[in-house]
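User:
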Amino acid sequence: MLENLLRVGAPSPLPVTPDSNGGAGTVCSRGVQIETLGAATYKHLPFVVNGINSVDQGGVDVVSYNFSGCIMAVYKVGGVFRVCHVSTGPGQDCKDEWNRVKAGATSVFEFKPSDFVETGGAALLGVYGLITADLQTYAITVVQNAVQNGGPKVAAITKARLLR
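Assistant: Predicted structure:
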């Protein structure tokens, strides 16, 4: 599992993807990438502005970036677990649509990775959300690494509590 391959204080090997425009306030599936770290394969699910970017979990870890208030969730529909990054905020809020999706799903687990930021006093670069293959939830804080020419460094890997 990805959370066991990352090390606090080490450079971050996780991809940084730019925000994708074009969400229509509904569920979509855009820009998903299959990545590897060591022997682990995982899916990287980008943030889509004004969208609920969703991917079939496929029995692997799913990581998404960059959380500042958005929701990351896993839900089951049609017998398949899906992981999503739900856009929130002024002009891009998909919470009403997310509530409709949840109403038609089972086994819904959701959290806000940004609620678990731990920078240790360093400059925040971003927050990743991680849902593991066995449905565990984590927030991964990445900060500016002053030692290695300002590249990203893992500051914290925090087991996340679910929203109620």
